[in-house]
Every structure is written in C-alpha cells, then in structure tokens.
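Document type: protein sequence-to-structure record

Subject area: structural biology

Format: plain text, a pair of labelled lines:
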Amino acid sequence: MKKYCWVKGMAALVAVTLISGCTSAEGASLYDRGLRLVEKMDVMAESESYWNMMTSSQETSEIIKEIGAGDYSSPRAVYEVRVSKETRELLVDFLGEDSSFSQLPEEVREELDHRLASTIATRFSAMAGVETLAAVSVLSSSDHFIDSSLTEDRIYFYIYDNGYWGTVTFQPYEDGIVHASGLMVSSDIFDGTDGEELLKWFVEYGGLREEDISKVDFQ
C-alpha cells in the first residue's frame, strides 16, 4: 500500500511539474535527458558554495574541483545498457550467491531487484576509492519524467576524455513515471579501455551481458 501511494503521489507531482513547465521538453530522448543530468552535475561541481555546504573533507573537495574542471557538453561516445531479465539474474550471481537471494523476504527481494541497476554505477565509482565515491555522491542528481514507452531499466554511460564519465540510470515505475539518477565515475578504473575492450570490461567487472550493451548514435 505504501509503495502504491508513493507511486500515485509521484505521478501527481510529475503532472504538476509538467504543467508548470519546469521539466524537460516532451519527447526528449533518453540520451538528451541523461546528458542534461550530467551537465547539471558538472554545474554542481563548479559551485564551490554548493559543495562547501555538502562536505568538510579537503580530499573530497579536491576531487570535486577536478570533476568541475572538465567539459561535459560533448561526450566522445555513449553506451546504453539494457537491464534485461537475464542481466538481472547475472547481477544477482555477480553480487552474491543465488541461494542468498532466494532466502530474502519477498518484499526485500522486490526492493533489491529494483535497485540492481543503480548498484552498477555505484560499484564502479567505489572502485576508485572511498574519497572518490564520497565526492561523486555529493554531486549525484536525479529527475522524474513521464515516458510510458520505457518498460525496463536502462543505464547510459557518457564517455569523456577528461578523467570522469557520466552515468545515468533510468528506472520505469507505474503510470509511465521514470526515475533518472546520475552519478559521475572516475575513468581511471577502466585503464584506457575503449570500444570492444570497454564492452568486455563491462561484462567482466560489471556483471553485464554483452548482448545487452549497445553504442548510442547521437550525432
């Protein structure tokens, strides 16, 4: 019941926001919506007033400054990950024993199943160290919009040459509501991989299926 009320409440909130003209333009692609979130995180990283209120760690602040120094307007490449049923099963095996998942209460299994997609970007960020994870968490951003055509979770990776990539996870809910969450990732963990090598990296370290990963034509 709580989940149902939350979704209905979110639908009302999104509807009001759409009417007020405060959301993205109707018909915008996932690529466009994701890029706007990445650029928003860049603006947050450039705002010293913002992150001074969010952290007192000098190390974290230095990493945020480094992120803010980059240009995120034009990605070199963009990859889309489709979080299919098969990918979810692989992620469960990748994160822990399948038997452990089956022993969880049903409500917890449902919650974990819906969070699986968002754990991918967080796990990649954590690979760069605790301070980097803290820095990108300060800059994390989200959005909600209506898109009834999206029926399964998607993750977009925005590839740049400035040391950090943008990731945006799109998760559909009832009534066509989509929750988009953005997180920056240090590209150092990818060791300069590109193209086909990058796909193999996703499969080996991300618990993803190669057939669910595709390059986005955004030119």
